[in-house]
């Protein structure tokens, strides 16, 4: 076999979004030799699209805010299925992570006193999101990218990992290919950090970018780790529904945080009809109270438009189903009648341009049409909360690819803070573990040969399946049968259909050669997308209740006995097996916060 | 060539059109020179150039290669030369282009073409790195955030909007003829720090841009400002950097 390009690192980070970059910076600062591998160009990762802000109890705007309140909001938003320890660390450390970004030069909107300003978001008791207009993700990724440049961290751009390699029962490194040349590359690294983001490209209507093919989820699963909470997929309540070419593109929650309201075709603010018992005590029950809350949070309760995302998405779905939707199958999101054009353009410039340019709608003058779009997967690699290490020694995960932190539903703004808090923790611990290791396993020639053969398989088949057609069929299956509202019959059908797709991907064929061949890249990504889709469908079928981002039409109630278990997915033979495991026990001093 | 499809549109339906795309293609494994290739596809009036490229890739030729990621103008992956002008394919609506003749789509200029619409971005990233695109400060790390007034913050807001798509740099005639020139994006990147009230590295950055391949090569053609999909006043930013250099000497 021909020699392939090889590199040695202490810590290899897969993915260059917020979590990957923060992990790489932490590992570098801990003295490790670090490499970052990313599928796209540096700075293009999905983090760049985050709009609203970074949730952190800095108390710059509301002095009543503190980590305990943030922790409580996060757990309640996640319907108590979160790993309490992750939610605790997240709430405690997020403010320092924001200040550190500021120290590294990030731009933030400021209060009149020059402090970092914070805005309101769904599920957060106080205005808590540090932000810059509605381009917070862009500034976050740029700041981390700049930091990585300043530290001289090595980046392998447009390079995709297809296999994690083990030796001596632990991680030894990883194997992948350069997108440009199609040539293979192997990395020897005793610590590998997965920071590959999510899975949204398995769904037809999604706010996610093309990178979101569940690579890290599948790599970890196949290396022997377990995935937790995979049945919980977040459908963001407000995606664009019109025109068709941009269906699914995100409309930031900041529109509602800054005063926008949802109305049905009759002009009614319907969210008042959908306040669940669980949130009644803290949600306004009249429009007057809701409107007063923006100015006076002490004496008024939150508007129902700012309930957690799962609640709002289900309500929109129900309104459309009841025939009270907008002309293109969504509902109306109205900020035009509630805030001045200057305010809207200053606070939400990207939204203003997005609607003006793509939908020919002036959001300062008319309402937007919005509906749910697949946005985020709560499920991911089960990790130790303090270190980010998975069940596979040397394999770490941070950010969206990791599971546990957000339970059954993620609050807006908690993703960017998650990336920073756990990116840093994971990077540090990956570096420490590599330094402690006495003997490093090597990536073996046999492993490289097997991984190469797997990667080249689609070139050996002529006249087979078109990978683009298979991807479209997969997206239909997941959208129609394992989407926002689920039933047993449909999910069983989905599993049958997925088995058919598994069979079809063994017959994929690719035109042309290895140099920058997008058809080939997709053929390899499809394997990961199918793995993840199967996990979602199996876990969703198993959980016979409705909770957070998992809604069963045949089991509409939340069931307390299901509130005590997380479902774990592991490889079982050729497929995926599901095991219920008890929820980690929260210590009493934290439990008291919920009384 | 524009022809409304015969079927009467149902309520809320989007009218569709036949659109011909004239693509500049290059496959290093078979071609010695780039070549033109035309495809005609049926598209909706609300579709973008990116949608037409996807349709060709998914249904006609799976080897068509271009970069794209977020698909709504935030990540800056799909800058292309569309009808001779640098734009993002995901933000260019077909209905805004003259469809009575083919829409030409070429890779951005001044950077080596790797395949089809994909260019080598390494020189672009090198130029970006060379202006030290990170905050430079001295003294102890602050225990809380540094204060910055809304006015000081507004001073450099415009240049923080950059998405590094290279539309400006690859629209610059000076950059086309001399790849040593830093190009507009790198100067925008420097501006973002030079005018940040927290930064203490302005002197070093200005010295780099005072170089013979630096800011003085700019001929103020405004191509970069026209090309920027974020509406950044690129030429103005470059002028501000020039002025900072002049004042420093006064």
Automatic annotation (TrEMBL), chain A:
Domain called Fumarate reductase/succinate dehydrogenase flavoprotein-like C-terminal: residue spans: 472-568
InterPro entries, per the entry: FAD-dep_OxRdtase_2_FAD-bd (IPR003953), FAD/NAD-bd_sf (IPR036188), Fum_R/Succ_DH_flav-like_C_sf (IPR037099), Fum_Rdtase/Succ_DH_flav-like_C (IPR015939), SdhA/FrdA/AprA (IPR030664), Succ_DH/fumarate_Rdtase_cat_sf (IPR027477)
Cofactor(s) needed by this chain: FAD
Keywords carried by this UniProt record: FAD, Flavoprotein, Oxidoreductase
Chain ranges passing through the membrane: none
Domain FAD-dependent oxidoreductase 2 FAD-binding stretches: 10-416
Active site residues of this protein: 309 (proton acceptor)
Single annotated GO MF: steroid dehydrogenase activity, acting on the CH-CH group of donors
Residue segments, region Disordered: 576-595
PANTHER family in the cross-refs: SUCCINATE DEHYDROGENASE 2 FLAVOPROTEIN SUBUNIT (PTHR11632), SUCCINATE DEHYDROGENASE [UBIQUINONE] FLAVOPROTEIN SUBUNIT, MITOCHONDRIAL (PTHR11632:SF51)
NCBIfam families reported for this sequence: PRK07803.1
Name the UniProt record assigns to this protein: Fumarate reductase/succinate dehydrogenase flavoprotein subunit
Species, as recorded: Jiangella ureilytica
Taxonomic path: Bacteria, Bacillati, Actinomycetota, Actinomycetes, Jiangellales
Automatic annotation (TrEMBL), chain B:
InterPro entries assigned: 2Fe-2S_ferredoxin-like_sf (IPR036010), 2Fe-2S_ferredoxin-type (IPR001041), 4Fe4S_Fe-S-bd (IPR017896), 4Fe4S_Fe_S_CS (IPR017900), Beta-grasp_dom_sf (IPR012675), Helical_ferredxn (IPR009051), SDH/FRD_Iron-Sulfur (IPR050573), Succ_DH/fum_Rdtase_Fe-S (IPR004489)
Pathway: Carbohydrate metabolism; tricarboxylic acid cycle
Catalytic activity: a quinone + succinate = fumarate + a quinol
Gene Ontology MF terms: 2 iron, 2 sulfur cluster binding; 3 iron, 4 sulfur cluster binding; 4 iron, 4 sulfur cluster binding; electron transfer activity; metal ion binding; succinate dehydrogenase (quinone) activity
Cofactor(s) the protein requires to work: [2Fe-2S] cluster; [3Fe-4S] cluster; [4Fe-4S] cluster
The 2Fe-2S ferredoxin-type domain, residue ranges: 17-111
Enzyme Commission identifier(s): 1.3.5.1
Residues covered by the 4Fe-4S ferredoxin-type domain: 152-174
Family membership noted in the UniProt record: Belongs to the succinate dehydrogenase/fumarate reductase iron-sulfur protein family.
Designated name of the protein: Succinate dehydrogenase iron-sulfur subunit
